[in-house]
Amino acid sequence: MRPGLFSRTNGFSFSDPGNGHLQTSTATTDKLGIRVGRVSSTGHEIDLTELNHFTILLPVQGRLEARSCRAEHSCRQGEALLFGPNRRTTRAVAEAGERFEANVLLFPTGMLNANLDMQTLEKTCELLETGVTVHHADTFGAPFLKFCDFLSTVIMSGSAMLGDRRHMQQMDTLLIELYGEFISRLADENSVDRKTRSAGARYVAKAEEYMRTNLDEPLTVSGIANAIGVSPRSLQLAFREVRSAAPREILALMRLNLVHEKLKSDKSAAGVTDIALQCGVANIGRFAGFYRETYGEKPSATRRRARAGLTGNR
After folding, report:
1. Residue 260's domain is classified under what CATH number?
2. What is the pTM of this model?
């Protein structure tokens, strides 16, 4: 990412280092100080820290994955990923031969504070620290998120609207109104049926922690559910509610991430299959396709490049 879009970039890598390409465009609204950006990439991963803004990530093409302090997220076009000030790792995944594209909006945290009472602010900040995915189809979020997409397009395309001062003032006014409605309802909408939802979040947190510490074991959904003391159905429902994915999908993603890291860092003579099996991967054939779709190259290519680097550093 270009310096200036976020507070600090801690690390960056392309999915395909030999053919990686990233293009970013940014602008800042005069009145509100909102940063608007457009990202186009062949696929990349970035470890970043944002200190001063509430961030909205709106994929236009491809898939966006993110990890924060206690959660993992995945979203596509028609969804938005929201974060408050935090440190996180995001992976932009280009799919089906197309580049990854996304709109990014960063709202000053002062706008967040101005719209919420203290109790709601605390709940919202806690929610945004780990991140939350909102669907454009969600009634409470649709007007604001669709307007954010529209605003990004207007600003990034250099539309003639930008030269109409009166029109831009009207857009600022509407944005403030929609933002206020959205942010004031965010915590409540993510706490509907609070007892059930908070229980579901706890189930997911416990299950994910159990998965992380047992990735090399032949885990099953029923086994995970039994380990954390819930029924398999309750666990499935909790993951659908909190992650919009099945436990098996999240487990596969965790194992894929672990294999990726080991392929890059393992100094032994182990090959791709050995490392994948060590990480609990059972279906090697399906794994190879999933890996290539996610990282833009075969696992053997990652391993080969990593070995060359390790050898060169001896």
Report:
1. 1.10.10.60
2. 0.59
